[in-house]
Each structure stands twice: as C-alpha cells, then as structure tokens.
Amino acid sequence: MKNKIIKPKINHTSYFINDDFEYSIDNKEFDQNNIINLDSITLNSCIFNNVDFSNIDFSNIELLDCIFNNCDLSNKSFDKNGIIRCTFNNCKLLGISFDNASLKNVIFNNCILRYSIFYESKLENILFNETNLDEGYFQELNIKNIILDKCSLKKFSFLHTKHEIIDLSNCIIDNINFDLISLKNIKVDTFKAAILSRYLGIIVSD
Questions:
Q1: What is the mean predicted confidence (pLDDT) over 36-61?
Q2: Chain-centre distance of CA 163, in angstroms?
Q3: Which residue(s) pair with 130 in the sheet?
Q4: Chain-wide mean pLDDT for the chain?
Q5: Rounded to 5 degrees, what angle do the CA atoms 81, 82, 83 make?
C-alpha cells in the first residue's frame, strides 16, 4: 500500500505571543515553559516540544497541521475531536482515547500507544511507524489506508471493523485478538498466518 499521508503544513513563529485567545491558536510554538491550558479550542499550525500535558487541560480540541515532539499526552481524551495533518514524534500516549474521533493524514512515529482506545472513529491515511500499540484496540472503525510499520501489537484487539488490506508482516502480533470481520484483508507472512489460522478454526499440525 502506498503512503498517501499528507504531512503537516507548518507556518509558525519562532516565539510565543500571549494573545487573548478565544476560539483558536494559530502558528505558535510551545514548550513546558509557555504551555497554557487548552480547552475547547482549535490549534492550527502549532508545534509542541517536550511538553508534559499531565496537569494541562487539553480537552475538546481540534488539531490542524500540528506537530508534537517528545510530548507526554498519556490518558488524554480526543473523543469526538478532529485531527488533520498532524504528526506525533517520540510521544508517550498511554491510555489515550479516540472515541468517535476523526483522524486524517496523521503520523505516529516511534510513539507509545499502549492501552489506546480507537472506538467508532474514522481513520483515513494513518501511519503507525515503529509504535507500541500493545493491549490497545480498534473497534467498529471506519478505516481507509492504514499503515502499520514495525509496530508492536501484543494483546491488541481488532474488532468489528471492515477495512482494506492492512499489512502486519513486519509487526509483532503475539496474542493479538481478531474477530472474523476484522481478520479479512489482513496481510501477514507464512509464520503469522499459522498463528491467525486459529480464528478460522484451523488446526495446524507440525
């Protein structure tokens, strides 16, 4: 599958301006020293470097053309939010929730997404690159063009989701959980095929 993912289009300032924000923040660069509570707002062409969001209100957010570098967004909720042309590099996203969210042209590069929840969301042109998705799940998703490259999917659940071909050949899938609907169009190597055959009731002999 070809990588059709469009990267963020950043046009940011090199400094922070403390404007009276009401509805959106545009073209800003944040770090731990100038980060503010961000609630019910649209973030456009923003860059976040080394920000720990543990004590930051980051709910009801719309993200457009944003980049997150080395940030901790663990246990944050993006439920019912839109994320378009955004990249997460080396970020910690433990237990993050995407419930009824819309993600388009989003890259997760070398991130930790353990225990993440993707439920009843729309995912289009998404790249998970060298990312840990252990014990997370995809359920009842609307998927178009998903790439998982060198990811860990141990104890991952993939349920009630129709999709195009998804190649898991170079991913770790120990104890992964599929239902029959989600198993269709999964591409794997011969060894992993033997593992997944159990979902079809096939017994593979030595």
A1: 90
A2: 16
A3: none
A4: 87
A5: 125
